[in-house]
Write a structure and sequence with these properties.
four-stranded antiparallel sheet; six-stranded mixed sheet; alpha+beta; 9 helices
Amino acid sequence: MSEHQHTALRLAAGGLPVLPLRAGKVPFGNCPTCAKNACGGRPNMKTPGPCTCPAPCHGWAAASTDPNVINSPTWARAWWEAAGVAYHPGGAGLTVVDLDNPAAIAWARASLPATRTVPTTRGEHWLYRGAMQGANGVRSGVDIKSTMAYARWLGFGTGAMTALPDAVRALAVKQPAPARSVAVTAPAMAGGGECPHRTPTYLDRGIAMAEQRITDARSAVHATVYRTFLAVLSTHGRCGCLTDTHTARLFTAAQAKGESARHCTDAWTNALTTLGLNHG
């Protein structure tokens, strides 16, 4: 048994989901069974599907606390080739604030509650109890690693771990990226009548209902956001009713539930494509 495998088993016994890292601090590539999401992972959403393959695939989603998985023949070979051990912080109810340089560390010391600290090659990892949506580049030299992310295991660190503060959660709530215009050229309405969706009350009520649907989501947030975008576009996407203000409202509601701007853009683009509205 390799040293990395031994470390992984010890961490998994403590409830920390682990996975092997190859050189460059990146996960092992997808196995053939799971290539191109053949096992059910949803494209562009980075969400694992119903994969039962024992190989270390899907990046962060491969992390496991099951010793049978960690000791499986495929994983055993990966451990011998691995350059390190990674873990899924969100899977253990943790959030890592990754501070990449001295300036970022100085900012954290002035702005965030003290917590457990782990030295890294160039900076520090600050660990908090509580999970949230992971996000990169929340400010210069600062990444957040929690759900849908992995962090390299570098030791237990020092200091007492404190509860995840609102100051860290707020870092991941960004203003939405400029929304792609969804005004499209559609065939003229029969009889040359004016589009009924241009009634301000009708459109505003529809957007408000879509915002509420996203806000009320308690699970499957990715799927809810996509389905909501699809419903809005199927009703209002062919007549040029929607403006950047409307799409920004939807993106803001999604990001308040933990979605990143990139995921919002992906879901919007996928909905456009599904409806045949994405004309390049």
